[in-house]
Amino acid sequence: MEMQNRIRACRGAQKGADMRDISKYQGIIPAFYACYDEKGEVDEGRVEQLTDYMVKKGVKGVYVGGSSGECIYQSVEDRKRTLERVVRTSDGKLTIIAHVACNNTSDSRELAAHAQSLGVDAVAAIPPIYFHLPEYAIAQYWNDISDAAPDTDFVIYNIPQLAGVALTMPLFREMIQNPRVAAVKNSSMPTQDIQMFKAEGGEGFAVFNGPDEQLVAGLAIGADGGIGGTYGVMPELYIRIMELVKAGKLGEARQIQYAANEIIYAMCACHGNLYGVIKEILKMREGLDIGGVRRPLPSLVPDDMAQVKKCADMIDRALERFI
Predict the structure, then answer these.
(1) Digit-coded pLDDT (tens) for 214-253
(2) How far apart are CA 286 and CA 250, in angstroms?
(3) Burial class for 59, CB neighbours closer than 10 Å (0-12, 13-18, 19+)
(4) Domain ranges, ordered by start, for the chain
(5) Confidence band (pLDDT; 50, 70, 90) for 21?
(6) Lesser CB count within 10 Å: N end or C end of the chain?
(7) Tell me, what's the pLDDT at 50?
(8) What is the pLDDT of residues 91-118, one digit of tens each?
(9) Residue 182 in contact with residue 154, Cβ under 8 Å?
(10) How does DSSP classify residue 126?
(11) Which are the contacts of 30, defined by CB distance < 8 A and separation ≥ 6?
């Protein structure tokens, strides 16, 4: 009887997946940056400015409250305030995926329920970190979060290099029995994982490429779109990559990918954290001041500024060349 129930559940999940419209996930979705005032507190006005910027750049959506949003250094209330302002400001113009994972189930469920109340397109979660939990406990954690937002898609965030645990195929098969599981944000390094999740998930299942440095490869092997931490500082390049891959012009797309990768490597060459560098570049190039980063992430130091300017100039040259 238990096996029959599992088979029926799996068939139900597959039917739901086949009917799901995943077009809202097919595109470039920047990870939204944390926005702070001079005291390091969440600044809703700056959240609004960054949201307006994303809308004007023509991206498909935003991924709010993930690594780029410095989620593990923010309180539940910080994250709620940010998401509320993003939803209000975007006014339906963006697909919104809210990353709601905390390192305990209760807070994660609270954020998931709050996200659903705002009408987001999906909630997402990494696995619990620090303790190495068995896969059945990870599945329970994700399903508990999903149950708190029963009318909202759920996105699994697979980032084994930081979470310390990978999304295995047995765990994935267990999770897609939940009909709300709509997508995987795949930040593992093997692009083959994208192919495997797409094949197992079925026609109505979406997979996002995670590593910015391999967007071309991820799209070529079947990713529906990309979610990335550097997309927001040079969205035009990533949008163009996706356009070219869809048109079958992989050689041209690869040239832009190489240029984007060189910029990423240069941005990572500072004393300050990558997101601090990105925020300074946004200030230089776009006049968009969204503050710094929250400790313990290292802030920029004066010696970083020449490198930051170099990165900004590299973006300008890439846009002149490719856009």
Answers:
(1) 999 999 999 999 999 999 999 999 999 999 999 999 999 9
(2) 30
(3) buried
(4) 2-248
(5) confident
(6) N
(7) 98
(8) 999 999 999 999 999 999 999 999 999 9
(9) yes
(10) P
(11) 54, 59, 62, 63, 68, 227, 228, 229, 231, 232, 235
Residue with tokens 């410095």: 70
The residue from 25, 33, 157, 238 that is catalytic is 157
Task: Flag whether pLDDT at 7 surpasses 60.
Answer: no
Superfamily of domain 2-248: Aldolase class I (3.20.20.70)
3-state secondary structure of 70: coil
Among the listed residues 95, 49, 42, the one whose alpha carbon sits nearest the alpha carbon of residue 69: 42
Contact of 75 with 62, CB cutoff 8 Å: no
Q: Which of 24, 60, 185, 279 is catalytic?
A: 185
Q: How far is CA 230 from the centre of its chain?
A: 10
Digit-coded pLDDT (tens) for 261-275: 999 999 999 999 999
- Check: CB of residue 157 under 8 Å from CB of residue 123: no
The answer to whether 53 is a known catalytic residue is no
Transcribe 4-57 into DSSP letters: HHHHHHHHHHHHHHHH---GGGSSEEEBPPP-B-TTSSB-HHHHHHHHHHHHHH
Locate all alpha helices (DSSP H) within the chain, ordered by sequence: 2-19, 44-57, 76-90, 105-118, 135-147, 160-163, 169-175, 192-201, 215-221, 235-246, 250-267, 274-286, 305-322
Cα(22)–Cα(120) distance, rounded to whole angstroms? Answer: 14
